[in-house]
């Protein structure tokens, strides 16, 4: 029987540090994937995911089980991603490995190994274009879309996390879809 997240947080607050391991096993990959979609860089996403769980541990005594644990956890991750984006804006750098993320990005793992070279190349181009278009969305639209599509959160839950109404979230998702539709109309008719 799986222990609920709120009970694991209560155990963590009570001094059972192994409860954090269980939470990390359960949530680390989803948090890292969310942060990758927010930052577009695997190494930074991995670092921010680890920092998310450090912050979770530090806040173990302040956690209140009156809401969804996932909302609480993704709020921490989202804040870290926003802080990182602000820091990057103040400290611009050029990555020497920028092309390696494009070559080894998420598209590489989604291509059918039985497909022919032409079909594989076409799918890789499409997935790369979609990924670039998604990364080019404004941060608030990208965050709302990530939480809605990949985390399956509802408008109200995303609104709590983002500090806005469910209607505002619905509008952001609509705007993101319209932008993506316009940017990808040549590739995905």
Automatic annotation (TrEMBL):
Record-linked SUPFAM superfamilies: Sigma2 domain of RNA polymerase sigma factors, Sigma3 and sigma4 domains of RNA polymerase sigma factors
GO biological process: DNA-templated transcription initiation
UniProt keyword terms in alphabetical order: DNA-binding, Sigma factor, Transcription, Transcription regulation
Family: Belongs to the sigma-70 factor family. ECF subfamily.
Protein name per its UniProtKB record: Sigma-70 family RNA polymerase sigma factor
Molecular function terms from GO: DNA binding; sigma factor activity
All residue ranges annotated as the RNA polymerase sigma-70 region domain in the record: 23-90
Chain segments annotated as coiled-coil in the UniProt record: none
Pfam families, per database record: Sigma70_r2 (PF04542), Sigma70_r4_2 (PF08281)
Domain RNA polymerase sigma factor 70 region 4 type: 129-178
NCBIfam families: sigma70-ECF (TIGR02937)
């Amino acid at each position: 029987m799986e222990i609920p997240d709120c009970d694991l947080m209560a155990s963590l607050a009570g001094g059972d540090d192994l409860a954090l391991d269980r939470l990390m096993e359960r949530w680390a990959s989803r948090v890292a994937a969310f942060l990758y979609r927010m930052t577009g860089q695997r190494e930074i996403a991995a670092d921010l995911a680890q920092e998310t769980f450090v912050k979770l541990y530090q806040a173990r005594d302040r956690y209140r089980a009156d809401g969804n644990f996932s909302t609480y956890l993704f709020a921490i991750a989202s804040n870290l991603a926003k802080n990182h984006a602000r820091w990057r804006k103040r400290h611009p750098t050029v990555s020497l490995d920028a092309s390696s993320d494009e070559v080894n990005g998420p598209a590489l793992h989604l291509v059918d190994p039985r497909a022919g070279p032409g079909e594989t190349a076409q799918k890789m181009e499409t997935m790369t274009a979609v990924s670039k278009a998604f990364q080019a969305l404004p941060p608030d639209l990208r965050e709302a879309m990530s939480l809605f599509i990949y985390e399956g959160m509802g408008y109200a839950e995303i609104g709590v996390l983002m500090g806005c109404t469910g209607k505002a979230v619905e509008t952001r998702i609509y705007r993101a879809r319209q932008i993506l539709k316009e940017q990808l109309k040549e590739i995905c008719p």
